[in-house]
């Protein structure tokens, strides 16, 4: 009989041990697969949300003078030696090499406007792009549709005593207040947002821009690479990444990865301990059998092969079942526990990795019992019968 046949017969005769070994590896591998799958889904979900939640690249004209400030964004003031941005610059951003990583391009023109006797900062925007960029906006009323529709910040609406549906005179032009932004706690509360082309015309700056905000999807490429490509396209502009947004995304992803790794290592150590103790117990119970093998001419390598082949068979089965169980568990847990909008993907490569991992843990934990079994003295083993 072949050594593999002896190993399989031993497993059939000791079904309880086999089930216990398989269960130990199944729990370990299933836990690792579950943690890994959920973590990967959380990473994808976090990257998607962070990439789409606001601008992470800001483009402004180069300036040699001091700057005005719009929120956390520096806007050049009235200076000598400033090249203004143009609408063509915003269009050029979508021609860079990594254009598929650009989620939203939101051009803006800023200017002080006289609104019924009060000075207010007027911001011309492309409303569809701006609303995609600022997903935290809660508009009380409706979204602007026509060229003469405006949005008022919460404080601007209070100061001007306007609400959704009212008319408002900005300069010599009459506008309709489409909606009022719910209080945010940022500079947005004090601004009036109007249609970009209308504001450009009223301020006498047709085709001109004050800045361009870009939301870049950077889960598949460094944001610095996109900044470099935009800088190459717009040599007369200052292109900068908002490091805070990028660092927050990277730190969140790193924390998720570290947590998953720590849990996986602990569970694998527990699984290895289960395999080790079970195989040691099996060797102790088979002293007579091993003694007979050695007495009839089996070499030490033959005995080790029998023990390790048993571990290989059980580990392969435990790894396969662990992958299936882990994927089922993560598919059920992720939507409920983590509230993910990104589904867990069944990856065959992860299944192969799970089986390889189970074999590594199972056989690694069986080496010492196998060596101990091969070193049994046949005479001592038979004397114990």
Keywords:
two-stranded antiparallel sheet; ten-stranded mixed beta sheet; 385 residues
Detailed description of the structure:
The protein is of the alpha+beta class and 385 residues long. The chain folds into two domains: 3-48 and 250-383, no CATH class; 56-241, no CATH class. Helices cover 55% and strands 19% of the residues. The protein contains twelve helices and 14 strands. Strands 1, 5, 6, 7, 8, 9, 10, 11, 13 and 14 form a ten-stranded mixed sheet that branches. α2 packs antiparallel against α8 (243-285) and α10 packs antiparallel against α11. The longest helix is centred in the C-terminal third of the chain and has 43 residues, at 243-285. The protein is elongated, with a radius of gyration of 34 Å.
> Could you state the order of secondary-structure elements as H and E?
HHEEEEHEEHEEHEEEHEEHEHHHHH
| Class per helix and strand makeup | alpha+beta
Main β sheet profile: 10 strands, mixed
Helix content: 55-70%
Strand content: 15-25%
Shape: elongated
Could you say how many structural domains there are in total? 2
Q: How many separate helices?
A: 12
Radius of gyration: 34 Å
Mean pLDDT across all residues, rounded? 76
Total beta strand runs: 14
Uncertain parts: 76-82
What is the straight-line distance between the termini?
24 Å
């Amino acid at each position: 009989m072949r050594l593999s046949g002896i190993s399989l017969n031993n497993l059939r005769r000791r079904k309880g041990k086999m089930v216990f070994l398989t269960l130990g590896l199944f729990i370990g591998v299933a836990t690792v697969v579950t943690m890994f799958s959920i973590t990967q889904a959380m990473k994808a979900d976090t990257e998607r949300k962070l990439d789409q939640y606001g601008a992470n690249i800001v483009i402004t004209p180069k300036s040699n003078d001091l700057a005005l400030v719009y929120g956390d964004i520096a806007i050049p003031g009235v200076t000598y030696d400033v090249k203004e941005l143009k609408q063509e610059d915003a269009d050029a951003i979508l021609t860079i090499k990594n254009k598929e990583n650009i989620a939203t391009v939101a051009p803006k023109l800023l200017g002080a406007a006289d609104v019924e006797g009060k000075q207010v900062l007027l911001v011309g925007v492309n409303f569809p792009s701006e609303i995609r960029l600022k997903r935290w906006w809660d508009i009380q009323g409706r979204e602007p549709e026509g060229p003469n529709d405006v949005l008022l910040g919460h404080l601007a609406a209070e100061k001007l005593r306007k609400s959704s549906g009212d008319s408002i005179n900005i300069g010599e032009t009459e506008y309709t207040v489409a909606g009022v932004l719910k209080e945010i706690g940022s500079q947005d509360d004090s601004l009036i947002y109007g249609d970009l082309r209308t504001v450009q015309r009223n301020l006498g700056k047709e085709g001109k821009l004050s800045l361009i905000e870009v939301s870049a999807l950077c889960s598949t490429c460094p944001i610095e690479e996109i900044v470099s490509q935009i800088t190459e396209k717009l040599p007369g502009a200052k292109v900068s990444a908002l490091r805070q947004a990028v660092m927050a995304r990277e730190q969140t992803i790193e924390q998720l990865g570290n947590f998953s790794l720590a849990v996986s290592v602990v569970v694998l150590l527990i699984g290895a301990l289960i395999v080790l103790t079970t195989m040691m117990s099996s060797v102790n119970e088979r002293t007579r059998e091993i003694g007979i093998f050695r007495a009839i001419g089996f070499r030490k390598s033959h005995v080790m092969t029998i023990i390790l082949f048993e571990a290989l068979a059980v580990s392969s089965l435990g790894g396969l079942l662990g992958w299936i169980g882990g994927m089922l568990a993560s598919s059920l847990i992720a939507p409920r526990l983590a509230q993910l909008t990104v589904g867990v993907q069944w990856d065959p490569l992860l299944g192969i990795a799970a089986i390889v991992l189970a074999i590594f843990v199972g056989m690694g934990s069986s080496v010492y019992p196998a060596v101990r079994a091969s070193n049994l003295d046949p005479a001592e083993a038979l004397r114990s019968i």
